[in-house]
Design brief:
Order of helices and strands: HEEHHEEEEHHHH
Number of helices: 7
Radius of gyration: 57 Å
Mean pLDDT: 82
CATH architecture of the largest domain: Orthogonal Bundle
Number of strands: 6
Low-confidence stretches: none
Number of domains: 3
CATH class of the largest domain: Mainly Alpha
Structural class: alpha+beta
CATH topology of the largest domain: Helix Hairpins
Strand content: 5-15%
Keywords: Coiled coil, Membrane, Transmembrane, Transmembrane helix
Helix content: over 70%
Shape: elongated
Strand order of the largest sheet: 3-4-5-6
Length: about 350
């Protein structure tokens, strides 16, 4: 069978002819649907309108897709931030834990130090109590206070925070702790803090004694003497400050004197050479001598001022010692008067 037989035969169309006929029918049917079906034609719209609407729809979908992409990117960014915040939170918690551990270590160290300080203070208190008690009745012989006062045949009566009570060849006396020789200060280990507490307590005792005229008068005298002690102590501090200032200035004055002396020696040598050679020139020796005299006077005045400050300190400490003895006497008198008053009150209460 040839190709022509496939298209046609004596019995009618061939196989291929039949297929072509069916294809043509399908094509015409589809064309008919596009031409006569209004739904497929866009509902009466022109093809340009349909295309424009589809383009707008496509553009809207593009914008929606772009917006969704941005939302996805923002979500990813927020997710990354949340992760970073979680990491920061972990680091903060770790830092807080480390801080708490360090604070605990610090508190423990402070507690250890405070315990050690307390143990040390307890040891010093025990040492003072033992050494002070053992010193009662001890013969010290002759001693010299830091302010220059001499005590002969000294016997210790009592050691307390403010100093020692002694008896020497002239009678009972008190020596302030700051006036004692350094070896005794080191031996008895006085505490300036406890001394201040004792002095403050002693000062306030007079302020509460106004229930009797005699006691009030004695208390007023005691307060006046303690005020004088306070003024003298302030003067001692000022004098010590003045001594430090003068001592700091002395090297400067001495260097100036040495410089002027060297200048004077040089000028004298020049004058001698001019005299031997009969050369002309101005002799500055008199002016330099005057400058040297002024500089040396400053050194002498500075040293004199130091001596005056030292004398002020000695006199003030001597007066303070005397005032403190008088205060102790006043306290004894007040105590005596109070006991007499209590005895009288007790006797009156016993009367029927």
């Amino acid at each position: 069978m040839g190709f022509s037989d496939l298209l046609t035969s004596s019995r009618g169309p061939g196989v291929i002819g039949t297929l072509l006929a069916l294809l043509v029918l399908v094509g015409f049917g589809t064309l008919y649907m596009f031409v006569f079906d209004e739904g497929l034609q866009g509902g009466g719209k022109r093809i340009e309108s349909v295309i424009r609407e589809d383009a707008l729809t496509i553009e809207s979908h593009k914008r929606q897709i772009e917006s969704l992409k941005k939302m996805i990117d923002e979500g990813n960014r927020l997710k990354e931030q949340a992760l970073e915040m979680e990491q920061v939170k972990v680091r903060l918690e770790s830092g807080a834990k480390a801080k708490a551990e360090k604070e605990a270590s610090r508190d423990e160290a402070i507690a250890i130090k405070e315990a050690a300080d307390k143990a040390w203070e307890d040891y010093k208190d025990a040492y003072r109590a033992s050494e002070w008690a053992a010193a009662q009745g001890e013969e010290l012989g002759d001693i010299r206070s830091l302010s220059g006062r001499n005590y002969k045949n000294v016997v210790i009566r009592k050691v307390e925070h403010t100093g020692i009570q002694i008896t020497d060849e002239t009678g009972p006396k008190s020596i302030d702790s700051d006036e004692l020789p350094l070896e005794l200060q080191d031996r008895f280990q006085f505490s300036q803090e406890k001394k201040a507490e004792v002095v403050t307590k002693r000062d306030t005792e007079f302020q509460n004694l106004s229930d009797n005229v005699d006691i009030a008068n004695l208390a007023k005298k005691g307060q006046d003497k303690l005020e004088r002690v306070r003024i003298l102590n302030q003067g001692i501090e000022d004098a010590n400050s003045g001594i430090q200032t003068c001592k700091a200035a002395e090297p400067i004055h001495l260097r100036k004197v040495d410089f002027i002396r060297a200048e004077l020696a040089e000028e004298q040598e020049k004058a001698s050479r001019r005299s031997s050679s009969r050369a002309q020139g101005i002799n500055k020796t008199p002016q330099i001598r005057e400058r040297l005299r002024v500089a040396e006077n400053k050194v002498a005045a500075n040293r004199k001022q130091i001596s005056e400050h030292e004398r002020t300190i000695r006199d003030s400490k001597r007066e303070i010692t005397q005032l403190e003895r008088e205060v102790d006497y006043i306290k004894a008198e007040i105590s005596k008067l109070k006991k007499e008053m209590e005895a009288k009150q007790s006797a009156q209460q016993d009367k029927p």
